[in-house]
Design brief:
By secondary structure, the protein is an all-alpha fold. It is built from 6 helices and no strands. It has helices spanning 5-19, 27-40, 54-58, 64-79, 86-98, 103-127. The termini are far apart.
Length: 129
């Protein structure tokens, strides 16, 4: 909810792009993106990624605070399927560099993403009937 409307839709595009980097847009990734859309108060519509340009999307996020918000959310997304592959790593590193984050910060964000995705999985188990 902290993002501006333009940033919310840019984040949705970015999240769907990241979710598909490993060649599969799995159920866990879809669930996380659905949760993000609910939090942002927007509908999760499938984005046409044919004309997706990472650098243009990243320029949408102008404040350091909002850059950090989306990077944390993306770290949960890349870790939720327990497959943090080379393509995902390269893109996350590129995003972090674009946002001028130090390597130590990137590592901390990644660890937070791993923990966040684990907590998300536990919450699903606890709320199943």
């Amino acid at each position: 909810m902290k993002l501006k409307a333009e940033e919310k839709f840019a984040f949705l595009q970015l999240a769907q792009y990241i979710a598909q980097l490993d060649g599969e847009y799995g159920l866990k990734e879809r669930e996380i993106i659905d949760e993000y859309c609910t939090e942002m108060g927007i509908e999760n519509i499938d984005i046409d990624l044919k004309h997706f340009v990472l650098e243009e999307i990243l320029m949408t996020f102008r404040t350091s605070r909002n850059q950090r918000i989306i990077l944390l959310a993306l770290m949960v997304l890349v870790h939720v399927d327990d497959k943090f592959g080379l393509n995902e790593y390269k893109i996350m590193d590129k995003i972090a560099q674009q946002f001028n984050l130090a390597e130590k910060e990137i590592d901390l964000f990644s660890m937070w993403g791993k923990m966040g995705s684990a907590l998300y999985e536990q919450a699903l188990v606890f709320t199943e009937k």
